[in-house]
Specification:
It contains ten helices and seven strands. The protein is of the alpha+beta class. Strand 6 and strand 7 form a beta hairpin.
Length: 293
């Protein structure tokens, strides 16, 4: 019944919630839309409020300026730009993880800290970045490497579409051995293993393909020292490879170029030069055959 092209200056927050939920489900091609907690998070962001009761926002109105004209406090983007960035990131790269329930997403940094500190070390969750459009970060709880007995919640620099076009979220989580349990208590392989990229077992067209791995230096276990007689690349020599350290193509030449009086003797280097010249003129096949015989 709305008059065409007539846009109200303000709408009830509950009306906007319906529209945002419809948009989100349509882009995710999923029945899993925005929960009441998700909508409270969005209300806090839209109204710059710390209230957490859904009833507090039920009768509030939001203006077009608040929606997509005025930047969020301390940011250079609007509420709609932030939300639209989340939708784009999710539908391009993270849709299966959302549908699996692996991404909480709409959780701020303080909430993530409160949730994780009550869990064992290695527990992590995925939340949308507050500071970057279309960004998602991993927050996890672990011991402070610099202070024994202290536990902290750490946050990775947010990932964006560009990052996931290089390496997927599941593979990045697999790379980080200090991440053990997806909040609240699910083993990470139970949730993400079906999305891991299978390792390459054979070279392709004669080439070995390199693989990108993600590390967090502060939480990376150093590689153990190789044992005696073992190298990082242990390859078996082919049957045609010689094991001699001296190939003997040229005969041994003395390094002593000084005469008994300590003067430089021109005759010796001239002899060397003549010897090299003679070898260069000799057919290569004859040299090898003489060496082998």
């Amino acid at each position: 019944g709305r008059v065409p092209f007539l846009v109200p200056d303000k709408v009830l927050w509950t009306q906007l919630c319906e529209a945002l939920d419809m948009k989100y489900k349509a882009e995710m091609h999923s029945g899993r839309g925005l929960t009441e907690d998700n909508l409270v998070f969005l209300a806090q962001k839209a109204f710059s409020s710390s209230r957490n009761n859904p009833e507090d926002f039920r009768n509030m109105t939001i203006s077009w300026a608040q929606f997509n004209r005025e930047n969020l406090p301390g940011r250079n983007f609007t509420f709609w730009q932030w939300f639209d960035g989340v939708v784009e990131l999710m539908k391009k790269h993270l849709k299966p993880h959302w549908n699996d329930g692996a991404i909480l997403g709409f959780v701020n940094k303080q909430q993530a800290q409160d949730m994780l500190l009550s869990k064992p070390n290695g527990t992590f969750l995925l939340r949308f970045s507050d500071s970057e459009i279309g960004g998602i970060t991993i927050a996890w709880v672990a011991e402070n490497p610099n202070k024994q007995g202290e536990r902290l919640v750490w946050n990775l620099l947010p990932y964006t579409t560009k990052d996931f076009s290089i390496r997927s979220l599941a593979d990045r989580i697999s790379d980080l051995n200090h991440l053990l349990f997806l909040y609240p208590d699910r083993a990470k392989d139970e949730v993400f293993a079906k999305y891991y990229t299978p390792p390459l077992s054979k070279p392709v067209d004669g080439y070995v393909k390199p693989q990108i791995k993600q590390v967090v230096p502060e939480f990376t276990t150093p590689n153990p020292e190789p044992s005696t007689g073992v190298t990082f690349m242990d390859q078996t020599a082919s049957s045609s490879t010689t094991h001699s350290n001296s190939f003997g193509v040229y005969s041994s030449i003395s390094d002593n170029m000084l005469d008994p009086d300590g003067e430089f003797d021109l005759e010796d280097p001239m002899d060397v030069a003549r010897h090299v010249e003679e070898l260069l003129r000799r057919p290569m096949a004859n040299q090898w055959s003489s060496q082998q015989s």
